[in-house]
Amino acid sequence: MATDKSAGLQDVIAGETAISTVGKKGVGLTYRGYSIEDLAEKSTFEQVAYLLIDGHLPNASELETYQERLVRHRELPLDLKTILEQLPGNTHPMDVMRTGCSALGNLEPEGAAHDPLAIAHRLLACFSSILLYWHHFCARGERTEVTSGEKTVAGHFLRLLHGRRPVLDLHRRMLDVSLILYAEHEFNASTFTARVIASTRSDFYSAVTGAIGALRGPLHGGANEMAMDLISRFKTADDAEKGVLQMLAKKEKIMGFGHRVYKNCDPRSEIIKSWARKLCEDANRMELFNVAERIEQVMRREKKLFPNLDFYSAVTYRVACIPTPMFTPLFVFARIAGWAAHILEQRADNRLIRPAARYIGPAPRPYVPVAQR
Ligand code: COA
User: Fold this and answer.
1) By C-alpha distance, which of 321, 317, 269 is closest to 293?
2) What pTM did the predictor assign?
3) Looking at the structure, do residues 231 and 299 belong to the same domain, yes or no?
4) Is the distance from the beta carbon of residue 303 to the nearest atom of ligand 1 less than 6 Å?
5) Domain that holds residue 258
6) Are 210 and 252 contained in the same domain?
7) How far apart, in Å, are the Cα atoms of 258 and each of 103, 242, 254, 265?
8) What CATH number has the domain bearing residue 177?
9) If I label 195, which of 13, 130, 137, 288 is the partner at 20 to 30 A Cα–Cα?
10) Does residue 1 surpass a pLDDT of 60?
11) Ligand 1 pocket, residue 256 CB under 6 Å
12) Which pLDDT tens digit goes with each residue over 325-334?
């Protein structure tokens, strides 16, 4: 029988995985055995995606072939562009991602012509094309090219977003690291959603579309947008301290803090914080960094809570001139690697995921016909 301890399935082991460890004692966060610190410093998002989906780090020729493949798969079918053009301009970009993914599932359905691995890499390659085709069409009625000449997912996104403005190396690498940090995180809500859908033997697109829906919520991926809304309310660090204390007095949640699994720190946060500092120094925007850092200090002092990955990610994205509503879609561009790995892992040793519930409703009672109610 379920106990209170399992509220929100906290601490429940709901399956096995060989993909990542989260907060494991003495090990920390690893993807297929490699530490997040090593991957963020020495690897690239494309290598990490390959590692997660294929199970090993690519050698030089595998990497080259893989990168070329991703570049080739950025183009969108004409019918998908037509569908994206129908979406209202005030649609949230996460809804665009959800519809774009689902629509592609109609145009390139899973089957003999599109096997699961091919779909995983296709989605990884074309997610930013989907978002930015829609974005430019809504903003200016422009049917933008979704080719960019950029080799990486990070560069492709920044180039399509900012048009002809050259992409700064510092911003390209920051986004690359950010995608590595966001790529995978064990049985988080969206990945678990994808696994539940996969466990019914549904198709790959349905699992990813469901995962996008789960990621959208502010308690999960949506927190990076909410963190930015919070940070941008304050002009100075002192304003931030006053404002956050008031929010805490009203028992409001401060987005970008706390975590279900980590109890003392989120190892990804230190890495992205150092990038936030670097970008703010480079852009002469230390006031933004100082506001964020003061919020962190207040949260540690008052609530013993630490920033999670979403908090300083918001700062880095702001300095790179990425619109706030695109923050969570960036999470999608990265997490598709983890989702794909988990869908494949679930399918490889599948059993329908169907937990039990403790019934707390009325005792059995006689049915009352309409006329007697
Ligand atoms: N701001 C203020 N208080 C917070 C908090 C936050 N960000 N996160 C947790 N708390 C407090 C809760 O109010 C609660 O206090 P209480 O016991 O006095 O009621 C306690 O800490 C436990 O929080 P709870 O929400 O039950 O923990 P959880 O494990 O269910 O939730 C999160 C984990 C991530 C959902 C939660 O920390 C949160 O909502 N954070 C903000 C959203 C966010 O950043 N999400 C991204 C996660 S990567």
Assistant:
1) 269
2) 0.96
3) yes
4) yes
5) 223-319
6) no
7) 35, 20, 9, 8
8) 1.10.580.10
9) 130
10) no
11) yes
12) 999 999 999 9
